[in-house]
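Bumping my old thread because nobody answered last time. Still need a sequence for this structure:
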């Protein structure tokens, strides 16, 4: 059985929402990890409307931190939780949204994370997020999938920390060049999906959507992975 999972920084819906809906719809994803989800005026309704317009629903995520998990029609949500990560003076509030889901009998703890521009904050928050993810996964005997905008490149410390414990999906089964930022001139791979090693990565890369939509929907490109799991 294959699960389609995606991660996407949607820049607070400040770009073309119709283009964004078309890109997310093109994913045909079972789970979508969002970063920079709306968190100001009417944030709940804006998240809900975006999800509904793509045939999805909001499974997890609160206002602060701007992270959320959306799920598709064949996904059953077993549990949802949101956590504020440790506050660091002068830096933006960071959070982790977690949805524990069942897809045709397979359980997954799916987390969405957006790390800081400062390296020390990134490693601190990644460590906290991994502990929270492990706790949720253990409680439900679930595999783990973490999607996010990590604001650093694969050779850097936080990326190495995550890749030592989880599979970097793109590195395992790359499709395309993997670059995600900026959408108009992609030169960096700072967005990624990481999965527990019991989930076999079939492919990971970009989304087959119109280039005009990809450049108008956000300043980031999404990452989509196909994962093969056994119930």
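Sorry it took so long. Here it is:
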């Amino acid at each position: 059985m294959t699960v389609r999972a995606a991660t996407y920084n949607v820049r607070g819906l400040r770009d073309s929402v119709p283009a964004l809906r078309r890109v997310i719809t093109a994913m045909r994803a079972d789970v979508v990890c969002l970063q920079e989800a709306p968190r100001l005026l009417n944030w709940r309704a804006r998240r809900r409307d975006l999800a509904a317009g793509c045939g999805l629903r909001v499974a997890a995520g609160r206002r602060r931190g701007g992270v959320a998990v959306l799920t598709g029609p064949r996904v059953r949500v077993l549990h949802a939780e949101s956590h504020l990560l440790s506050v660091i003076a002068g830096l933006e509030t960071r959070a982790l949204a977690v949805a524990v889901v069942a897809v045709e009998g397979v359980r997954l703890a799916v987390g969405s994370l957006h790390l800081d521009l400062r390296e020390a904050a990134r490693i601190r928050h990644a460590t906290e997020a991994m502990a929270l993810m492990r706790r949720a996964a253990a409680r439900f005997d679930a595999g783990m999938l973490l999607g996010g905008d990590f604001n650093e490149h694969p050779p850097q410390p936080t990326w190495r920390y995550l890749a030592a414990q989880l599979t970097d999906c793109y590195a395992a089964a790359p499709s395309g060049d993997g670059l995600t930022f900026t959408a108009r001139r992609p030169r960096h791979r700072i967005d990624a999906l990481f999965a527990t090693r019991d989930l076999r990565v079939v492919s990971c890369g970009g989304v087959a959507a119109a280039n005009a939509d990809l450049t108008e929907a956000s300043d980031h490109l999404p990452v989509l992975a196909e994962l093969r799991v056994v119930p």
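The two ends are 8 Å apart (CA to CA). Let me know if any region looks off to you.
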